Amino acid sequence: MKVALLQGGRSLERGVSIRSGQRVTEALLDLDHEVEVLDLGPDLVGHLDKHRPDVVFIALHGTEGEDGTVQALLELLDIPFTGPGTAACIRCMDKSLAKYTLREHGLPTPDWVTYTEAAIRDFGAATTFGSAVKRVGLPLVAKPASQGSSLGVKVVTQLEQIPGALITALSYDERAMLETWVGGRELAVSVLGDEALPVVEAIPTDSNTYDFSARYEIGGASFECPADLPDGDAAEVERVALAAYEALGCSGFSRVDIILAEDGPQVLEVNAIPGLTETSLLPQAAEAAGLDFNAMVQRILDLATA
To answer: Using CA atoms, how far apart are residues 140 and 149, in angstroms rounded to an integer?
Structure first.
């Protein structure tokens, strides 16, 4: 099969994307596919239209690659591609929109408020920070509305910390969220096709938050897969994850991040195109389900071209 692999891009997750792409490229070559590795650039659309690969494997993370931009272009070119379609990517990338969608489907997600940079700068929205705290409580989590890999995330324990935390979050995106902090076990459920893979639990080694370094630096966190959960809890976590995946319109593969709190699972976000690096959670879950990395990559291709 002639496969065009997209990696790199211009987002803050470029390095992670390249690592994902390199690993997938090795697998595709092992599987005897013909592979062309491409980065985002002004000649991309014309090149794809001219050479017409059988499928595009999207190993891009963050803006442009994961927000529906590339997916919309590939749909116009009528070239199959891996992972969710345009609409699902738009919903997943915008965490606030994703949470509204989850709420509309009756799915549990921590409460939140969203601020734009313009609202704070031009409209005096800072006067509402006290009201936001009354709504979401303390501690809370400040985060960019449209970034992945825990970039720009701060835990806030006092009202006075909100301006600084929002400045950090807004340095990554034009919109930021204040979200209820929910204590519990940090879980990830990867979905391949319409099947929930074994639950992974992330256990950070040096901090209380599973942040960028914990995700992508070897030794930054330890993982347990399958997570040691009572059967009833595991089944409920998988049910909620599949429901979130379907509510957002995902297809192919994605990863649902969940906090298992005392009162049950809470969906934090859905990653439309999760990492495929040596420390990423989807490959670990696939391996626990009996799929080595090459078999998982082939399954992703099969889903894209079915």
So the answer is: 18
* Catalytic status, residue 216: yes
Active site residue 13: yes
Phi, psi torsion values for 178, nearest 5 degrees: -110, 120
In 3D, which of 83, 59, 31, 298 has the Cα closest to residue 191? 83
| Choices 3.40.50.20, 3.40.50.800, 1.10.600.10, 3.90.380.10: CATH for 2-82 | 3.40.50.20
Per the annotation, the verdict on 269 as an active-site residue is yes
Q: In what order do the strands lie in the sheet with 112-116?
A: 112-116, 175-180, 140-144, 154-156
| Domain 91-108+183-290+298-305 part of CATH 3.30.470.20 | yes
Taking only the tens of pLDDT, the chain with its 306 residues reads 999 999 999 998 999 999 999 999 999 999 999 999 999 999 999 999 999 999 999 999 988 999 999 999 999 999 999 999 999 999 999 999 999 999 999 999 999 999 999 999 999 999 999 999 999 999 999 999 997 667 899 999 999 999 999 999 999 999 999 999 999 999 999 999 999 999 999 987 765 554 444 443 444 578 999 999 999 999 999 999 999 999 999 999 999 999 999 999 999 999 999 999 999 999 999 999 999 999 999 999 999 999
Q: Which of 216, 252, 254, 280 is catalytic?
A: 216
Separation of alpha carbons 232 and 105, rounded Å: 22
Task: Specify the CATH class of 112-180 in words.
Answer: alpha beta
Known catalytic membership, residue 275: yes
What SS3 state is found at 115?
strand
